[in-house]
Amino acid sequence: MRICQPREELRPYVRYYWVLESDEPFSILTFPIGCPQIIFHKKTPLYIPELDKSQSQFTISGQVNFPAHIQSDGSLEMIVAVFYPHTVGMFIDTPPSAFYNLEISGYDIENRQLNEIAQRIFDCENNKDCIDILEDFLTSKIRPVLNISRVGSTIGTLLSVPLTSVKALAASACLGKRQYERVFRETVGMNPKEYARIVKFQKALWQMQRGESNYAGIAAECGYSDQSHFIRNFKELSGYTPEALIKYCAPYSDLFTAPA
């Protein structure tokens, strides 16, 4: 896998891009990472058994609250743009709440300009040039949006203090609780309470990735009420208890790790 950093003007909105080419079949367990993605498959798309479907050649992957396996038949070449939790809607002119817990075809949102960009990427042989094509499009879509700024600020608070109440987040965004919940859901793709579960889970993965093995300490650090709550939530989002996951694979938090 090759990681590419976005150009400077896109860095507040796009976390990173990754490119993967493989001629070996594989099956990998994935977890909710808290960030939507736009995916371009230049060869055979990935199959997701939990959804009993293959990704579209051009896929938009929304916020999810379940673990899933991704499977390749050994003919894989894909380019992926990973966005911050609250920014993808600006670029696709569709609220992320429309594809909650879904992997949808990018063609289904009927965005002519985006469809043309996808076709240009599929027609381009050099993947670096493909990312340049995508970045030119994304840069052209940047515009100041108050709700994106408000929600982004509160997500920063959640990442630092996952236990922060929805009421406190709403107050910091200068919105009423109900209005904030609606704006958050439209901007991020799930409600703030559910998103906080993803943040806690990813922060726990990050602690384990760094070698922490005191589960009571992880629970306290990540905002869980107790160790039992932590283990229950962890299993819901990964399919494994923390101890079992360590035996299955090396813990890795996408949300709390800066890819290089």
What would you note in describing this structure?
By secondary structure, this protein is of the alpha+beta class. The protein has 2 domains: 2-140, Sandwich (Jelly Rolls); 146-248, Arc Repressor Mutant, subunit A (Orthogonal Bundle), CATH 1.10.10. Helix content is 42%, strand content 18%. The strands form 3 sheets. The protein has a 6-stranded antiparallel β-sheet with strand order 1-2-9-4-7-10, covered by helices on one side. Strands 3-8 form a two-stranded antiparallel sheet. A hairpin with a 4-residue loop joins strand 5 and strand 6 (53-54). The longest helix is centred in the C-terminal third of the chain and has 18 residues, at 192-209.
